[in-house]
Amino acid sequence: MKRPFGQHFLFDPNILKKIIACGGVTREDTVVEIGPGLGTLTKFLSFYAKKIIAIEIDKRLIEKLEGILSSSSNVEIIQADAMKFPYDTIEGNFKVVANIPYYITTPLLFRLLEFKEKITDMTLLMQKEVAKRIAASHGSKDYGVLSISAQFHTRPELKFMVSRKAFVPPPEVDSAVVHFNVSPFPLYPVSDEKLFFDIVRTAFGQRRKIISNSLKKFEGIGNALADSGIDPGLRPEKLSVGDFVRLANTLK
Ligand code: SAM
């Protein structure tokens, strides 16, 4: 059978409850779930949250979902593409809890962060490799542009791993749950965000090179590195987010 939309379903109640516990979901919360699938996580969420808005792209699943969730009066099922959904139309703040479709993990994360003023936190089940990159600290081989971009507006924490065997059908890789505390404003005092990300992307574009070489295109980089107290002989993965921020602010 053809499986579009990254459909790998979870049925294990212990894993589903653990995901919800990571999100700290209470009766006060509105929760947005991306990709309810066959409604297993949705059903559990309906026991813990005030309201669940479940956004599913696959028209063929909608009717099934409506049947499965017919007794859950606090669930609203919406047939829509989560990449295009206007999250600002949701009343008040909300949490996101989801076993997300892996083919759009990174773009979906950044789409959701466009609405960071409305989102208090997110608990997302995703591929383990991506989870490790998102949560990585400097000095780790997983640390890079994705870690810094995610950590600029959120505090991501890798919570627990989920074996590929827990899914039906099993995907080709293992998964992990990441909890993100979301901040409406940048967590770092950057004076020029565009320059900051230009420096970060350029440095990691050539991650084997030392930063004084890879960042050559930025005029005055030698002095900026010296003034920020950063060793020009370092490779980019050795610089913390704070180091990149200091460098960008000094260069500016
Ligand atoms: N929540 C279910 C579970 O845990 O068993 C299903 C998770 S499955 C990994 C991903 C779900 O996201 C599928 O139901 C799929 O149809 C849906 N999906 C894929 N792309 C989507 C999109 N762009 N917008 C909304 N839902 C999407």
What can be said about this structure in brief?
This protein is α/β, with parallel strands linked by helices. The chain is 36% helix and 21% strand.
Q: Can you give a write-up of this model?
A:
- There is one protein chain.
- By secondary structure, the chain is an alpha/beta fold.
- It is built from ten helices and nine strands.
- The protein has a seven-stranded mixed sheet, with helices on both faces. The chain has a two-stranded antiparallel ribbon with strand order 1-8.
- The site of S-adenosylmethionine has 24 residues, from strand 1, helix 2 and strand 3.
Q: State the fourth-level CATH superfamily of the largest domain.
A: Vaccinia Virus protein VP39
Q: Characterize the biggest β-sheet.
A: 7 strands, mixed
Total tally of structural domains: 2
Q: In the CATH hierarchy, what is the class of the largest domain?
A: Alpha Beta
Discrete helix count: 10
Under CATH, the topology of the largest domain is which? Rossmann fold
Instruction: Please state how the strands of the largest beta sheet are arranged side by side.
Output: 4-3-2-5-6-9-7
Level of helix content? 25-40%
Q: What would you call the structural class?
A: alpha/beta
* CA-based shape: elongated
| Mean pLDDT over the full residue set | 96
Bound small molecules, by name, code or SMILES, are: S-adenosylmethionine
